[in-house]
Please model this.
Amino acid sequence: MSQPEDAEARRAVQPVICYPNETLPVPELALYAKAREGAEKVDEALISARNAGCFRAKAGQFFRISSVDGPQVGDLNLWNANDLNERFYSGKSRALHGTHLTTGERMWSSFPYLRPMATITEDTLGWYGMDQYGGSVHDVIGTRCDPYTGNLLSGSQYHHCCHSNLTRALADELGVSLAEAEPHVHDVLNVFMCTGFTRDTGQYFMKASPVRPGDYLEFFAEIDVLGALSACPGGDCSAEHSSDTAACYPLLVEVFAPQEGALGDWQSPPVNGYDRSHGR
Ligand SMILES: [Zn+2]
Model:
């Protein structure tokens, strides 16, 4: 293929950040940390391997996802507990914060709501940073493992991908059919998963998660949330997913409620302020 004469000059143009995030509302991490000190556990759910389960946290409560027994990756969906139309928007969270999330960053909701649903307050894998392959932890670049892609690539019929696990869990939680639940399942936050893009071909890669039992990711619920978490059939995602061959372990979800008044005059964030007239 021929190149224009100024090809190198065009490639040498400096990139600019798409969404400079200096004007993003800053979470009140010090207030959250103080409220967390006196918080008490009010609920927990143990998510079994190659399965998913739901949990709920009210606005102002905390939820923690912990590794237990062995290295395991989790696929997290989040909805407004009072309106399932408002759900986690992986792509916009990626555009605002980058490919992987950590402490102080947020799970943002879909249009037209676009507000923080949950803020990461603790990440015991925050030390990992970005490795030599461009890999990091807790990505918002993958989607979720699903039976459709497996069927497309290899003609398989596998039923314990995260997409199916999340669909079953949500159907059971809401008392609706699988067909009704499935459209609510969306792109996930890949908790504990270590991923990136190859530098040469730009392909999505995964590698063994650095997570170990005792590690956790903790969130402050900015609104009432319904969560669904799948313990991915990929286990630590060191080799493959979408099969029963990987070693898989449970994940623990715990919900903590601060003491009355511990959050002072903190208020749940309002929905986005755009007037929705779209130029008409
Ligand atoms: Zn998965």
In short: The pocket of zinc ion is lined by residues 75, 144-145, 161-162, 232, 234, 241 (CB under 6 Å). DSSP finds six helices and 13 strands in the chain.
